[in-house]
Each structure stands twice: as structure tokens, then as C-alpha cells.
């Protein structure tokens, strides 16, 4: 969530309010690695593979 400030023009108050409302009853699950959707997009050739 650290990069969300950039999305809202650096407005930390707006970002905090938005996240507070979105995440009020949410469960946050941190997953390591690429998402399945990203894997499928790369496999289909829509997204370039990243070089690590």
C-alpha cells in the first residue's frame, strides 16, 4: 500500500481515508511470487517477462 500515495497525487490524507474504507473488514493476505493472472498473461505473450 506504500505506493498508493502516488496514485492520489501525493495526498496522504485522501489515501489514508480511501484505504481505511476499502480495508475496514478486509483480510490482507500477502502472497510471494507472481499472481496466477500475471503468469497467464506472460504465457500468452501479453506481458514481457521480467529479468531478475
From TrEMBL:
GO MF: ATP binding
Stretches assigned to the IstB-like ATP-binding domain: 1-44
Record InterPro entries: IstB_ATP-bd (IPR002611), P-loop_NTPase (IPR027417)
Residues in the signal sequence: none
Listed name of the protein: AAA family ATPase
Organism: Burkholderia vietnamiensis
Amino acid at each position: 500500500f506504500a505506493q498508493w500515495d502516488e496514485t492520489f497525487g501525493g495526498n496522504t490524507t485522501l489515501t489514508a481515508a480511501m484505504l481505511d474504507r476499502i480495508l475496514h473488514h478486509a483480510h490482507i493476505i500477502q502472497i510471494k511470487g507472481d499472481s496466477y493472472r500475471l503468469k497467464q498473461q506472460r504465457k500468452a505473450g501479453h506481458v514481457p517477462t521480467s529479468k531478475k
